[in-house]
């Protein structure tokens, strides 16, 4: 396997249990149900990750809602930290949570152990609740619950991130929703499009306009020294993790166990999902040859679909990785490329222009270590 594809990150989809029913969640609830990984399974997946060359590794907890299994998270972290120290590996750990179960005990643990904590929040109450309803509490506001939790905890120096999903219906309200999150003093504010939805040309235009509005607004936040950081802008600014399609350093473990070549395989069921299985949890090993074959097949299939236009595109190194989208739409039906390309370009154009416009701005340089 090429060194560029050595796994450096482990995405642990810890459990299928969740108290929300987010409309755009790609994880197959039918297939996964309420299954949860065992500690022994996770230990084997960590051991498999640490066998690969590289002195820096990342473990990311996801779900379902991972904080439902908070005790398991603590045990997993203890094991991963011990192994990382033994092997002299720099270990970064993150968690994506819906925030409805966040309390001081969890915050203290995350801060003490330097977790990157990403809370799924889509902006204001109306936008958030439209897509993130509770499973059982019909009519209750998950937004209100998250806000109550945020206001009841002492964050100290925990650098919380808000992670927003932008759906076609809310594309024109991007800036309003970012401002709502800014009011909660998040250190990071991330916003990503729902690339598995059907975007009309009008909605894409609205999103392009919203991104331009964001760029203008972001400059004022730096001027007023009330800014926040954005990971995607950071990657563009400092050339981190570019060429995503040609450099796959991730391995994914679903709640049922098993190593998968891409997290989007977890949207599939049965034998279809098994096509993307590259290792089982009864051994601490990933089938590198199979993983290589699948990645190369996906890359070849993508370029057979799009022809030369992507190879010749000046933005190709900054593009979102299309391989996951290819898995999702190939197996679930539908056509994704036109909206995928348009939305990617809208991000890239605005963020590269921000980088250019702000390269001498002291606040920007300090925030992004540029």
How is this structure best described in words?
- By secondary structure, the protein is of the alpha/beta class.
- The protein has helices at 29-32, 39-50, 70-86, 104-112, 125-131, 142-152, 174-182, 201-223, 231-237, 270-274, 288-306, 323-332, 337-358, 362-368, and strands spanning 9-13, 56-62, 90-97, 116-120, 161-166, 188-193, 250-253, 259-260, 277-279.
- It is globular.
- The protein starts with 8 loop residues before the first strand and ends with a helix.
- The mean pLDDT is 91.
The ordered H/E elements are EHHEHEHEHHEHEHHEEHEHHHH
Helix-residue proportion: 40-55%
Secondary structural class: alpha/beta
CATH topology: TIM Barrel
- Please give the CATH architecture: Alpha-Beta Barrel
First-to-last CA distance: 33 Å
The whole-number mean of residue pLDDT values reads: 91
Report the top-level CATH class.
Alpha Beta
Envelope shape: globular
Total number of domains = 1
What Rg is obtained from the alpha carbons, in whole angstroms? 20 Å
- Say how many strands there are: 9
> What is the strand content?
5-15%
Count of helical stretches:
14
| Sheet of most strands | 9 strands, mixed
Strand order of the largest sheet: 6-5-4-3-2-1-7-8-9
Q: Report the CATH superfamily.
A: Aldolase class I
Poorly predicted regions: none
Note the main attributes of this structure:
single chain, 370 residues, alpha/beta, TIM Barrel, 9-stranded mixed beta sheet, 9 strands
Quick structural summary:
With 370 residues, the chain is an alpha/beta fold. It has 14 helices and 9 strands.
């Amino acid at each position: 396997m090429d060194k560029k594809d050595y796994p450096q990150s482990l995405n642990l989809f810890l459990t299928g249990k969740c108290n929300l029913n987010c409309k755009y969640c790609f994880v197959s609830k039918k297939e996964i149900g309420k299954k949860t990984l065992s500690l022994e399974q996770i230990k084997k997946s960590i051991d498999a990750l640490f066998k690969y060359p590289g002195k820096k590794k990342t473990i990311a907890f996801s779900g379902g809602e991972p904080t439902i299994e908070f005790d398991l998270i603590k045990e997993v972290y203890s094991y991963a930290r011990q192994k990382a120290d033994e092997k002299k590996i720099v270990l970064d750990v993150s968690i994506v949570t819906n925030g409805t179960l966040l309390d001081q005990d969890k915050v203290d643990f995350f801060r003490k152990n330097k977790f990157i904590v990403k809370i799924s929040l889509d902006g204001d109450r109306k936008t958030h609740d439209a897509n993130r309803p509770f499973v059982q509490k019909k009519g209750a506001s998950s937004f209100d619950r998250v806000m109550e939790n945020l206001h009841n905890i002492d964050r100290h120096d925990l650098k919380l991130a808000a992670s927003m999903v932008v759906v076609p219906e809310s594309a024109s309200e991007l800036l309003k929703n970012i401002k709502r999150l800014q009011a909660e003093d998040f250190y990071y504010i991330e916003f990503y499009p729902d690339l598995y939805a059907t975007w009309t040309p009008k909605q894409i235009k609205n999103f392009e306009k919203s991104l331009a509005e964001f760029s203008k607004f972001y400059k004022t936040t730096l001027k007023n020294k009330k800014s926040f950081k954005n990971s995607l802008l950071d990657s563009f600014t400092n050339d981190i993790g570019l060429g995503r399609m040609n450099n796959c350093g991730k391995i994914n473990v679903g709640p049922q166990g098993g190593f998968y070549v891409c997290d989007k395989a977890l949207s599939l069921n049965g034998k279809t999902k098994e096509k993307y299985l590259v290792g089982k949890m009864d051994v601490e090993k990933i089938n590198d040859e199979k993983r290589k074959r699948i990645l190369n097949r996906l890359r070849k299939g993508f370029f057979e679909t799009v022809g030369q236009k992507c190879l010749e595109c000046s933005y190709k190194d900054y593009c979102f990785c299309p391989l996951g989208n290819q898995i999702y739409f190939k197996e679930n039906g539908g056509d994704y490329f036109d909206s995928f390309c348009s939305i990617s370009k809208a991000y890239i154009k605005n963020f590269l222009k921000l980088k250019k416009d702000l390269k001498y701005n002291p606040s920007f340089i300090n925030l992004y270590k540029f």
